Amino acid sequence: MSQYRARPPALATLLLDDAVVRITRWDFEPGADTGVHTHGFGYVVVPMTDCKFLLEDRDGSRRVDVAKGAAYRREAGAEHNVVNAGSEPMSFIEIEYK
């Protein structure tokens, strides 16, 4: 795999990791991405800013705008790349339940 990336990486800050949950704060500059990953646990996302997501998965890509504070949940097994498609920095808290 190449060491070069087309996009800047999002910054992940681990806030808590115990027997019950893993909580991570994700910060993205415009155009930054997480890289393709698969979620091993179900999770909840709580946007700390308005988020303009570009979600890339094996079915293609789609834009999703989520307002600050509008939490959502997904099941384990989600595989995707998350990109900040907006012109402003964005951040969210991801809470994975074990």
From TrEMBL:
This is Quercetin dioxygenase-like cupin family protein. The lineage of its organism: Bacteria, Pseudomonadati, Pseudomonadota, Alphaproteobacteria, Hyphomicrobiales. Transmembrane segments: none annotated. It holds the Pfam family Cupin_2. Keywords: Dioxygenase, Oxidoreductase. GO terms for molecular function: dioxygenase activity. It comes from Rhizobium mongolense. Residues 25-95 form the Cupin type-2 domain.
